[in-house]
Amino acid sequence: MFDVLVKLKFYFKENKWQYLGSFIALAISNIFAVIIPFIIGRFIDAIVTGEMNAAVLRTYSLQFAGVVIITYGLDFLWGYGLFAGAYKLQKEMRSKLMRHFLRMRAPYFEKFRTGDLMARGTQDIRALADTAGYGMLVLMSATGFTATLVIMMGLTVHWGLTFAAVIPMLPMAYVIKVKGAQVDEAYEIAQKSFSSVNDDVLEMIDGMRVIRAYIKEADFIDKFKEQTSGLLKKNNKVSEIAAIFAPTVKAFEGLSIMIALSYGAILVAQGTLSLGDIVAFQMYLGMMIWPIISVSELVLILRQGTASMRRVDEIRYATDELNFKGTIEAEQVDDFEFDEFTFRYSSSETINLDKIRLDLKKGKTLGIVGKTGSGKTTLIRQLLNQFPLGSGTFNMGSSAYSEYNDPSLRRLIGYVPQDHVLFSRSVRDNIAFGKKEATDEDILVSIRMASFEEDLKNMNRGLDTMIGEKGVSISGGQKQRISIARALIKDPDILILDDSLSAVDAKTEQTIIHNIQQVRAGKTTIISTHRLSAVKEADEIIVLDNGTIVERGTHDELIDKRGWYYDQFTKQEIKEITENEPLSSPDPYERRDDY
Question: Are 209 and 355 contained in the same domain?
Answer without folding.
Answer: no
